[in-house]
Design brief:
alpha+beta; nine-stranded mixed beta sheet; six-stranded mixed beta sheet; about 40% helix; globular
Length: about 550
């Protein structure tokens, strides 16, 4: 394939036509022809004289990857089979969803900005539509995605993932929320415990279940004022129901969840059909925290090079008998100890200043009230170590006593670097129990992607009504699914996610035309070896000849 190669020389861009071939597994330039600058390019055609060449360059990697994954997952076809829309000229509902996914990959963009991006991208050449792309067209077509159709689409896509060999044995479950500027919404946008501490904003909650391959299999959009444990209680029946409908034996599935989801009701519900790996609160395992570290066994070295150790026992909790592993990570212990010492210094210095101002007699200014002192101390301590940082405020006489609870501090230090992991899977080796629970970091990374303004951000949400919010979350989770599926397809390349995305963003095509050329021709710009492997693996060239 002939490709375009550009060079920057003293601030100017010059173009070459390059033909490459593979020798001993490496791409080398077979020949190249100097074309010139983009404004005035000289091209040799069969010995002829100089010809005027027009070149327009487009981003191609992300667009073509979305199209390739869409074909592999049969995503837009599934949508079109499910939604109730008459055949009309122009894009289908499924294709409008793909355009919206691309808008989140490239933004995050509003519907208006997505429509503008469409007209400036390779998509405008790939899709031939008889009407003008605009925000209203996108909004009208996405409106076909009702709550019921979204659930049906998600189910069919999960079936397709299993057909492709991505049958889950582990489902990691967690929740997050995102802030909105919605003032007068419906039931979803509500005041709650915002993850980003913006308690003045209405928030929307999102629950996500991903497999051990970090592929989203289930998501839930819920009101921002509902507690995590209640969300799981209401979602677990639908998760189990979907597992059964996918013809997967529930007893082969283990749900991994954080301690915020623990409750008698949730544990009972989960263990009716599937297995669980979770974490216990420190108060539930006080007697285990003082077990000397020399009783712990070395389990494995994690990806960061940190040694993980563990001590195994059993415990009765939530009316069930569980295997419990107390894991220990020395690097985590060091980090937690340092964090505590910073907060302790902040507490001692801050409350000393508050004490002096509260107990001051005379002088200028209004004296500090008891309620004012309490408010400032609470702001100082927040939710950090309330069992350790102690204080007492008297009114008559006006005085503040404060101290560090040594017993509580000792118990806290004994827990640093440790995690109490429980499971009903008594057959699992100790190291596997810890690995399964610690794999939860993959889901935490997914939430970072969903909040990354440069990747697939849930914010800003340019909608207000509940149905539109659900569609918005569905589009964002679909964007995450496509990205995770892309990483999974490229896993044997052993490249970081960051390098893969940067390589994808750098794949471009150019529309080239000359004075004597019959029509314009789309050619690929020069690629790096990694870009060439991605291009070949996904067969992206087929979209150029579409």
């Amino acid at each position: 394939m002939v490709k375009l190669k550009r060079k920057r020389i003293k601030g100017h861009t010059y173009w070459y036509a390059v033909s490459q071939k593979r020798v001993n597994g490496k791409l080398i330039d077979e020949w190249q022809v100097y074309l010139g600058s983009a404004k005035s390019i000289l091209e040799k055609i069969q010995g002829g004289g100089p010809k005027h060449v027009n070149i327009k360059s487009f981003e191609f990697g992300k667009v073509a990857t979305i199209l390739a994954i869409d074909e592999e997952l049969q995503f837009s076809k599934t949508i079109n089979d499910i939604v109730d829309k008459k055949d009309m000229k122009g894009l289908s509902v499924g294709e409008y969803v793909l355009v919206s996914v691309f808008g989140r990959w490239c933004g995050p963009l509003s519907k208006r900005a997505t429509a503008k991006m469409f007209k400036q991208s390779f998509l405008d050449f790939y899709y031939s539509i008889p009407h003008k792309m605009n925000a209203q067209n996108i909004f009208n077509n996405l409106a076909y995605l009702t709550k019921n159709t979204i659930e049906r689409i998600s189910f069919e896509v999960s079936k397709r993932l299993i057909d492709l060999g991505l049958r889950p044995s582990i489902l990691m479950w967690d929740t997050t929320n995102f802030t909105t500027n919605i003032q007068n919404g419906e039931s979803l946008a509500r005041k709650g415990k915002a993850k980003n501490k913006r308690f003045d904003k209405n928030i929307v909650g999102v629950g996500l279940a991903v497999s051990e391959d970090n592929i989203p299999f289930f998501h839930e959009t819920y009101p921002g004022n509902i507690h995590d444990s209640k969300v799981l209680s209401e979602s677990i029946d639908r998760i189990v129901g979907q597992i059964k409908a996918l013809d997967v034996d529930p007893k082969t599935i283990t749900v991994v969840m954080d301690k915020g989801n623990n409750s008698d009701t949730n544990i009972d519900k989960i263990l009716e059909d599937i297995h669980v790996v979770g974490a216990l609160k420190r108060d539930q395992v006080k007697k285990f925290m003082n077990v000397p570290l020399y009783n712990y066994k070395m389990l494995y070295v994690n990806e960061k090079g940190h040694t993980v150790r563990g001590w195994r026992t059993t415990l009765e909790a939530y009316g069930q008998g569980f295997t419990v592993v107390i894991s220990h990570n020395e690097a985590t212990e060091k980090r937690q100890r340092g964090t505590y010492l910073r907060y302790e210094q902040k507490f001692l210095e801050g409350i000393k200043d508050i004490k002096e101002r509260y107990e001051r007699k005379g002088g200028r200014g209004r004296p500090m009230s008891q309620s004012g002192a309490i408010r400032q101390i609470r702001a100082l301590t927040s939710d950090n170590y309330p069992s350790v940082f102690k204080y007492d405020i008297g009114l008559e006489p006006k005085e503040i006593r404060y101290w560090i609870d040594d017993d509580a501090k000792k118990a806290l230090f004994a827990s640093f670097g440790k995690n109490a992991i429980f499971t009903d899977r008594h057959d699992l080796p100790t190291d596997e129990i810890v690995r399964i629970y610690n794999s939860k970091y993959q889901l935490e990374n997914d939430f970072k992607l969903l909040k990354d303004k440069l990747v697939i951000s849930l914010t800003p949400a340019y909608v207000r009504k509940d149905d539109s919010i659900r569609i918005h979350v569905f589009v964002c989770v679909t964007g995450l699914l496509f990205m995770r599926f892309f990483f999974w397809r490229m896993k044997d390349l052993r490249q970081s996610e960051k390098d893969l995305l940067e390589a994808l963003e750098g794949i471009r095509v150019a529309l080239v035309s000359t004075e004597d050329m019959k029509g314009a021709k789309m050619v690929v710009e020069e690629m790096t070896p990694l870009q060439a492997r991605i291009f070949s693996r996904l067969d992206l060239g087929r979209f150029i000849d579409h």
